[in-house]
Design a protein that fits this description.
two-stranded antiparallel sheet; about 250 residues; alpha+beta
């Protein structure tokens, strides 16, 4: 039996510690003892502490650990300021020849959606029937011209029709406009930012003409939105229910 160096508790060391006798009853006691007695100069990896240096740009004194003794700037802002004043090294003739060869191979291609002409390498459109100048043009082309049955993720129309209608581009743009109009603040608790949701004042399913109207939207945080639907349900919501909830 031996006593722990930290908590002074008696314990029986394990068989593995017979040759080198254990000093602590648990890892917690060992960690606590090291945090108190192996700090600063008493630590095993002590290398003299932090080094004082002067920033090359602003002249401010800052302290750095010995592992980063070659640093010359106190912050990234000073580094970028210094980098702007430096001249770029001229390119070698070999690199210029490589760039010239790569540019000579490029081919002019028209975007399949907007018709914009862009120079690209042949490997970019190898084996493709259509080419797009950006991801936005690709997304617009797919949403307008490609049928749902032709896509790879089509599973026979499992989702509800209302779910697909809520994810249309028109509804997404309507949500952005309502959030911007009401300054990204919840109209119930006046909290700005966070997890915000846009609520249809007139019911979504029965009022198809009013779905994308700015007057038909109001901003709630997630907590207030769930409180509203717990009180009035998820069907046949009206403006009168909203006035009661806000008041």
């Amino acid at each position: 039996m031996t006593n722990c160096l930290f908590c002074k508790k008696e314990f029986q060391p394990k068989r593995n510690y017979k040759k080198y006798q254990a000093k602590f009853c648990s890892r917690k006691c060992a960690g606590k003892w090291q945090s108190q007695n192996r700090r600063g100069k008493k630590a095993f990896h002590w290398k003299g502490g932090k080094i004082e240096k002067v920033c090359l740009v602003c002249g401010k004194k800052f302290y750095i650990i010995p592992a980063k003794k070659n640093s010359r700037f106190c912050s990234q802002e000073c580094y970028w300021k210094w980098l702007k004043g430096q001249k770029r090294k001229p390119l070698s003739n070999k690199t210029k020849e490589k760039i010239g060869k790569a540019n000579s191979r490029k081919v002019v291609v028209e975007c399949s959606y907007c018709g914009k002409k862009v120079k690209r390498s042949p490997s970019a459109f190898k084996g493709k029937k259509r080419y797009f100048c950006s991801r936005e043009c690709y997304a617009k082309f797919v949403s307008e011209f490609i049928l749902k049955e032709e896509t790879s993720n089509w599973q026979g129309g499992i989702n509800d029709i209302r779910d697909t209608e809520r994810k249309t581009r028109e509804i997404k743009e309507w949500k952005k406009k309502v959030l911007k109009r009401q300054n990204w603040t919840c109209q119930k608790c006046d909290k700005r930012g966070g997890r915000l949701e846009v609520h249809h004042i007139e019911n979504f399913s029965s009022n198809g003409d009013k779905r994308a109207l700015l007057k038909n939207g109001i901003v709630f945080c997630k907590k207030c939105h769930t409180k509203f639907h717990k009180r009035f349900g998820y069907k046949n919501n009206t403006r009168e229910q909203l006035n009661k909830f806000l008041n």
